[in-house]
Inverse folding.
């Protein structure tokens, strides 16, 4: 993780519309910024046609080759008749460039959040995830990395310690606790080896699943990585009963290694540390202090440290 300054300072509305026009479409001037912090994403009106979604990639985060893997995976899923919103191919390319920005265009697909209280909806989601994982197991990502403690804890902790956001008096405690968490979680993974690691959605929470009258569809593979199947399940399961419903549907299409259930708590705390590191690394982007002002307060970091201590104790007791 690294500080990116203000990478989108020159991404004006006119430049967004020009990029869409440069791809061969005729925008009608309507532009709506969609919720996104890592990248910049816009709904763009198209003359006499449905709107498109334009995603502008954050400079320096992913290499072109890594983005190509993301796009190829999305297209592979769509070709397997899975409800994945995949990028449009323009003259055989999905990753486009304009005025120094890399971007991709997507068809707009609306929808609402899934009802995670519904056993039927959860089983449906489980079946789709099993099919997605079946495709994901066919090959490996070579450029996108994996869900591991180096990426999600050690690198994230370095970003926090370098950011100046963490009160200096907490530096040593933060360093000790994150080091201990990484070591403990590494041991948890090692104890379960061999573990199947497949291409995953990677960030499969309710915000990346949209439900329509015809069922759910998935969006945003920006965090796709290699990892255990349970990573795509636990964020959609707010309770043990919900997880049971997901797994019931999953089992209809793919076997699940139930040993992976012991990874849910490690994956949860890895995500928590990674989030703190992500915000810290992006703090110079003006969008982040506006959206996450509470992270600039000492009390937030004190609570974060308490959470890490509790997680470490829980992992030690399991």
């Amino acid at each position: 993780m690294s500080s990116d300054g203000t990478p989108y300072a020159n991404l004006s509305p006119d430049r967004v519309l020009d990029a869409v026009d440069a791809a061969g479409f005729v925008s009608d001037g309507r532009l709506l910024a969609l919720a996104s912090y890592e990248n910049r994403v816009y709904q763009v009106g198209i003359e006499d046609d449905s709107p498109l979604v334009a995603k502008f990639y954050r400079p320096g985060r992913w290499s072109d080759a890594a983005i190509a893997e993301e796009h190829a995976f999305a297209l592979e899923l769509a070709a397997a008749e899975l409800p994945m919103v995949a990028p449009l191919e323009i003259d055989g390319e999905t990753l486009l460039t304009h005025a120094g920005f890399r971007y991709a265009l997507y068809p707009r697909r609306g929808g609402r959040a899934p009802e995670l209280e519904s056993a039927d909806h959860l089983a449906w989601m489980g079946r789709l995830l099993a099919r997605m994982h079946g495709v994901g197991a066919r090959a490996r990502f070579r450029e996108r990395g994996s869900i591991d403690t180096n990426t999600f804890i050690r690198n994230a902790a370095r970003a926090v310690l370098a950011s100046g956001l963490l009160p200096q008096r907490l530096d040593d405690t933060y360093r000790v606790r994150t080091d201990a968490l990484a070591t403990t979680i590494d041991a948890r993974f090692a104890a379960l080896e061999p573990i199947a690691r497949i291409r995953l959605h990677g960030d499969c929470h309710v915000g990346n699943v949209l439900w329509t009258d015809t069922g759910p569809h998935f969006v945003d593979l920006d965090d796709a990585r290699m990892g255990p199947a349970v990573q795509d399940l636990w964020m959609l399961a707010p309770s043990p009963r919900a997880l049971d419903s997901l797994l019931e549907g999953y089992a209809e299409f793919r076997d699940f290694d139930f040993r992976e259930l012991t990874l849910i708590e490690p994956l949860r705390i890895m995500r928590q540390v990674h989030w703190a590191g992500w915000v810290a690394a992006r703090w110079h982007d003006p969008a982040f202090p506006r959206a996450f002002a509470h992270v600039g307060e000492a009390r937030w970091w004190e609570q974060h440290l308490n959470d890490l201590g509790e997680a470490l104790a829980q992992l030690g007791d399991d």
